[in-house]
Amino acid sequence: MMKRVGRHPNVVTMLGCCTLKQPYCMLMEYVPCGDLLQYLRQLRVEYERRTGGAFAISSTMQRPLPRYVDLQLPFIDSEGSYIQPEIIGTTGRPSIADTEWSLLSNDGPLLKPTDFSSRSKLEYILDPKELQSFAVQIARGMAHLERKQITHRDLAARNVLIDERKTLKISDFGLSRSGIYINTKRKKVPLRWLSVEAMRDNLYSSKSDVWAFAIVLWEIGTLGGFPYPSVNDMDLLNYLLEGKRLEKPDNCSDELYSLMLHCWSHSADMRPSFAELVSHLDSVICRKRVYVDFTSLKPDYSFPPTEQQTEVPTTGTAELSK
């Protein structure tokens, strides 16, 4: 899969791999500054420190909720079925098991050795333009995967890495598949980032990734908030089928929230493509607008809770009916 992903500035790169015999290994690009979720959470700490609005956490709110849950499906006799685009052919998922090792070609300069002994430090600045740049970068990386006919299936702020230049790179392709994917085996999945059709029909496509992208936009706007903090895992599908969605963060513009709602359309066909999202977010007009404005927040404003601050009950499993 990673060989098919190829190279893009906003996608983590596989530099090489060895798959002829065990132990298998992959040589991945080093991205030194952690993930976007932790960066956003640190921005939240900085904001609360400056405003004096530290979020009070009771002893009963320390239990982290699982980000991934088991989907108990009615049939689990195979790894999954694929609907392959014509351009991919009928060979199923690409295999790299017939090569001893592989090094991807590099059209740019050679990578310089990195000092791994010291973690690169980032400057945490609550800048609306920076957050908008993050949204554009993620959309660009996902548009690259869309062109490659790859469905990520686990797009979330925690799976977006950040380097010392604040370049974002989409990572964690453990759930990724080629083409449109129908899951037929019980596996742990990121429930609160899933689209309606992924939860109900176990159907994944680039349009389900678009749904997850809007959840990431919400994570950015809330500085790492936990999606649907008041909804039980088992109630989430019905909640969405009733037409309910994540509430608009107070600091997000109506235009940005309208874009989120577009990405959360019940029908996958009604959602924009990542190419369209890039075109919209990166347009000259949009770059001049402020989509996330922290100056408009009241001094006593509290961001939506993180998963550690959420008291909603969860069983860790979700049962979907066909």
From TrEMBL:
A GO term, aspect molecular function: ATP binding
Sequence ranges assigned to domain Protein kinase in this UniProt record: 1-285
Keyword presence, Transport: no
Keywords: ATP-binding, Kinase, Magnesium, Metal-binding, Nucleotide-binding, Receptor, Transferase, Tyrosine-protein kinase
Gene3D superfamilies: Phosphorylase Kinase, domain 1, Transferase(Phosphotransferase) domain 1
UniProt protein name: Fibroblast growth factor receptor
Any one GO BP annotation for this protein: cell surface receptor protein tyrosine kinase signaling pathway
Chain positions recorded as Mg(2+) binding sites: 159, 172
Family annotation (PANTHER family): PROTEIN KINASE DOMAIN-CONTAINING PROTEIN, TYROSINE-PROTEIN KINASE RECEPTOR
Active site location: 154
